[in-house]
Write a structure and sequence with these properties.
GO molecular function, one term: transposase activity
Keywords: DNA recombination, DNA-binding, Transposition
Pfam families: HTH_38
CATH architecture of the largest domain: 2-Layer Sandwich
InterPro entries: Homeodomain-like_sf, Integrase_cat-core, IS30-like_HTH, RNaseH-like_sf, RNaseH_sf, Transposase-Integrase, Transposase_IS30-like, Transposase_IS30_CS
CATH topology of the largest domain: Nucleotidyltransferase, domain 5
Radius of gyration: 32 Å
Distance between the termini: 45 Å
Helix content: 40-55%
Number of domains: 3
Protein name: Transposase and inactivated derivatives, IS30 family
Strand order of the largest sheet: 3-2-1-4-5
Strand content: 5-15%
Structural class: alpha/beta
Number of helices: 13
Length: 324
């Protein structure tokens, strides 16, 4: 274990006093209880050009060298700081997304996710008293207990999830869709969300109400030009007209067991990302349609860890973009 301590200003003053009295360095070593090399280096560094040793000057030189040897913080670079600030604060990229996308594109700036997290928690991105860390996603959402009684209306289903083709289960192709709705205020507008299982690409449409007829119309319109293989929704009553959608799009619906949101994990995760823009209990009718489209485009162009830091757009359309 290294127990070495740097010379203090008090010790330097004693060295200056003893040198002025003509005491030899070898004697100073024993009087201060320091090693010969420590004292000799201290004197040689600060007695250049036959100048007398000055404790004050020696301490100033020491402080400058200590400051210079400390590692510089990555985000001291203004260009990198602005890039990270923009992606995190304006576009809601996570620290991991920012770090790994920079590495994927092999940019001149590289920074670890941990460094970004430290900056966030130390207030580097706080603005006007608002804590930047509040923009981080919440973990460990509460789930219903196993004894929870499902009170929502039951609908007739066409196929159980266990009947879904293996290619859809293994995410080996695009156009296997998971479906759900995101509610604003009770009885008000909602968002229909459709997520491709392989690429996590999102289609979204605002509906005037969480009703089966609105879901039917929107799903047919959104997917009319897509060669959909399967659709996996939850068992909510808004999907009661799934048979009509099947006939229009020539696709089968596969329903997971009740209270199994993890069977539609891609859609549930995407809904969580949308909640960053459209929090619960807010009236979705107040948002302009162009704003909703803009936020959906942001999500489709945000790199994902599960896609090796590619974006849903890049995977779904098999294109490579320059994002940073």
């Amino acid at each position: 274990m290294n127990t070495y301590k740097h010379l203090s200003i008090n010790e330097r003053e004693k060295i200056m006093l003893m040198l002025a009295q003509g005491i030899k360095p070898s004697k100073i070593v024993s009087m201060l209880g320091r090693s010969r090399s420590t004292i000799s280096r201290e004197i040689s560094r600060n007695c250049k050009l036959n100048q007398a040793y000055s404790a004050n000057t020696a301490q100033i030189n020491y402080d400058k060298k200590r400051q210079a040897c400390k590692p510089k913080f990555k985000l001291d670079d203004k260009e990198l700081y602005q890039l990270v600030h923009d992606k995190f604060m304006s576009h809601r990229w996570s620290p991991e997304q920012i770090s790994n996308r920079l590495r994927l594109e092999n940019t001149k700036h590289q920074i670890s996710a941990n460094t970004i997290y430290r900056a966030i928690y130390h207030g580097w991105f706080d603005e006007g008293g608002r804590l930047a860390r509040r923009k981080l996603r919440h973990k460990g959402k509460t789930r219903h207990a196993k004894t929870h009684d499902e009170k929502r209306g039951k609908i007739k289903i066409s196929h159980e999830l266990s009947e879904r083709p293996k290619m859809a289960d293994l995410r080996e192709r695009t156009d296997d869709i998971e479906a759900d709705t995101v509610l604003g205020i009770s009885g008000g507008h909602c968002l229909l969300t459709l997520v491709d299982r392989k690429s996590r690409y999102l289609w979204c449409r605002r509906l005037p109400a969480k009703r089966a007829e609105h879901v039917q119309t929107a799903m047919i319109d959104l997917l009319k030009d897509v060669k959909v293989h399967t659709i996996t929704p939850d068992r909510g009553k808004e999907f009661a007209y799934h048979e009509k959608i099947s006939q229009q799009l020539n696709v089968e619906f596969y329903f997971p067991p009740p209270r199994h949101p993890w069977d539609r994990g891609s859609n549930e995760n995407t809904n969580g990302l949308l909640r960053e823009y459209f929090p619960k209990h807010q009236d979705l009718s107040k948002w302009h349609e162009s704003d909703i489209i803009s936020k959906v485009n942001e999500l489709n162009h945000r790199p994902r860890k599960c896609l090796n830091w590619k974006t849903p757009y890049e995977v779904y359309f098999d294109e490579v973009l320059q994002l940073v």
